[in-house]
Amino acid sequence: MPYGSDAMATAIAPKRQKFSLESLKAGDRLLKGIKDALRKKGDKIDYDKLRQDGYSEAMIERLKEL
To answer: Are the C-beta atoms of 59 and 49 separated by less than 8 Å?
Structure first.
């Protein structure tokens, strides 16, 4: 008798968050503070330089959104 697709149930671990919501919000506040300080000085943010320095695209996108 052949086994059906449900013959062996597999356990799937629930996804865990890598970071807590509070730490993500704190990181956003820190990025926003840095961005605001640069704007007050009249400096522009050089996103290409950030890429060259090894910052992730995800971090750069978050910085742009703030």
So the answer is: no
27 part of a folded domain:
yes
Contacts 24+ apart (CB under 8 A), 33-36: 35/63, 35/66
d(CA 9, CA 6): 6
pTM of the model: 0.53
SS3 20: coil
Give the range of the structural domain holding residue 29, as residue numbers without chain letter: 21-65
Q: Report the Cα 58 to chain-centroid distance in Å.
A: 5
Nearest to 56 by CA among 27, 23, 15: 27
Name the residue with tokens 């993500």: 24
Per-residue pLDDT tens over the stretch 20-55: 888 888 988 988 888 888 888 888 888 898 889 888
41 domain residue, yes or no: yes
